[in-house]
Structure formats: structure tokens, C-alpha cells
Amino acid sequence: MNLNTLTTQVAHLSKAIGYFINNEVNRVSEKDIQEKGLHDLVTYVDKESEKKIIEELSKILPEAGFIAEEEQQLERAERFNWIIDPLDGTTNFVHGVPVYSISIALAEKDEIISGVIYEANRDECFTAWKNGGSYLNGKKIHVSSIDKLDNSLVATGFPYYDYSLLEPYLKLFDDLMKSTQGIRRLGSAAVDLAYVACGRFEIFYEYGLHPWDVAAGTLIVKEAGGKVVDFKGGSDFIFGRQIIACNNLVHDRFLTKLKSFFDAYLS
Fold first, then answer.
1. Are 132 and 208 in contact (CB under 8 A)?
2. Which structural domains are found in the chain, ordered by start?
3. Rounded to whole angstroms, how far apart are CA atoms 4 and 7?
4. Are the C-beta atoms of 83 and 107 separated by less than 8 Å?
5. pLDDT, tens only, 217-227
6. CA 3 to chain centre
7. Fewer CB within 10 Å, N- or C-terminus of the chain?
């Protein structure tokens, strides 16, 4: 398997899906929006995008299974599985806020070996494959060289259905407002991770996420020279619903800070 070629094919597919999504942005009405969970929205655009993605990925790698947001009953394969978010940032999309993306990763067993994030509004396609580096529209990218928390720009996502860790989350948030250059909440975890990879953010952290939100981005960050861990500093960040992604220079200090707020709640 040529991962470079495969990733390029997925990037072309992602751009085509992004074109479809952008064409629909002014056509979605209130009657098209469904709530599949608490504050968790879905539209026909999500569903149709995922259908198109699955159809095309099945041609690229027929033996692979799927882990997908909207069709969670799809069959998984023993070796290869695609992990798909057809529209990461649906709430932004339905409100006309221009930050949303397509995220597609390929996992071999438990390892992500290819990842693509396409930010449809800025026409920015982030790609990576195992041992191949990370790229933005074909140009190699790297995490930032900022080495102090005080100079770091931080991204996070606000809890919207799982409030079990809200207390330590808010205490850390309060601390970061005072100890960093600022905090941003874009509304698409995939975009947050891509922005860490290309040096726009130094830090991203969030809990309550799903594999399809983060799978592609974790590889893109790591291949760009960054570090990705869960809230305990371990490797359960794809399925463990907790993630920290940083440049390698501020990682240790941020992890120590986060653990000082969260460790009592995670033991």
C-alpha cells in the first residue's frame, strides 16, 4: 500500500465533499435540522456527505471497514478501518459560522496511518501519512517553536452534553485565561488539531470527543512534530474521549498543569 497515493486520493475526495457542503450551506432550513442527542445536531448534509465518502472510500480500499459518526452500525474490519466525520462542526454549519471540516483517517489495527482534514471555508487541506510528514495544501508544516505557556495560544471545546468534568475544566480555564496568550473555541476539534499542527495554536485540549473527531488530527499533529496524549499522559486519546495536543516544547508544562486540576477526578 502506497500511503502517499492513498492520502492524496482521500484529499481529493474531501475537497469534493467540501464543495458539496458549501453548496448546501444556504439551503438548510430549520426543518432540516435534527437533534440526535443533547445539543448534538445533524442534517441531511451530514448524512449525504457520509454516504458519498463511504461509497468512494470503498473503492480506494475495498477491504477496509468503517467507524463513522452517522452510520455507527457499519461493519468494522479486522485490519483496516476508515474513521470518518463527514461534517465536524455541524452546529457552526447550521448557524452559518464558517468553521467546519471533513475528517477522514485510516487505522491499521489501533494505529492511525493516514489522515486528512479539509477545512471547507478556507480551502485548506491538511494531510499526513505514517512517517511521511504533515502538509497543508501540499506544503510541509510543523508545530510552532513557542516554548512558554505565557506566549501560547490555546484551543479548547466547551462541554455541551457531558458535564462530569465541568468543575476541573472551568478551574483550568480560569487559570489559562491568566497564564497564556489567550483561549479560542472554534467549534471543530479537527480544525483545532490541524491548527496545532501548522503552528497557529500551541495547545489543544478537550474531553467528551469521539474517535471521528480526532483520529485524523492526531496523526497530522504527530507527523508535524507535536505530541498527543490523553489527560493522564497516556495513549488512549482516540477512544478515551480525552485529548491534549501540543507542540513538543510546551507539552510537559501544560500536561503538568492540566493534571493538577484533573487528576483527582480521573483516579
1. no
2. 3-140 (3.30.540.10), 149-266 (3.40.190.80)
3. 5
4. yes
5. 999 999 999 99
6. 20
7. C
